[in-house]
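Data card: per-record layout.
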Amino acid sequence: MSPDDVLARLQQAAGEADAAEEAFRREFATRMDELARKRTFAYRRLNMVREMLAYAQAVGAPEGAAGAALAAARRELGWDEDTPAHDSILEHLAPVAQEAANLAHASENADGEGSEGKGDLFAALAQFEAWYESEYRSPFWSLFDVYIPERPVVDF
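The structure for this 156-residue chain is written out next.
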């Protein structure tokens, strides 16, 4: 084997190592992005449900708790206006609000059933997220990525 052959083989091995490292870095970056997105969505889910529960608990009577939970979602999303899209989304989010209300007032239920007999907030949330994904072709939690500039207050 000549020195040129040895160097050519070593050059080829170095090139293969470069390509393998670059492929790994791309895969790693993609996986990191996926995990960061999942974490972000998990915290958005936590924060919105926390607000929905807090609003539902703040209402003295169980009857208005679901409406309060929807108001919390609306506030979290920054929706001040009614639009057909907002109305549709809130309509499909209503079962989640109802489950939050059931949890918030579980001890006050007249039938004495607590949260066990009323349904499942996790199932309602999963169903809502699936509906949103199929309807809008993106995750619901990506709505929070949209920056909505504040409207300046002008006093004439």
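Known properties of this structure: Confidence is low (pLDDT under 50) at residues 112-117. Residues 44-145 form one domain.

See the next section for split statistics.
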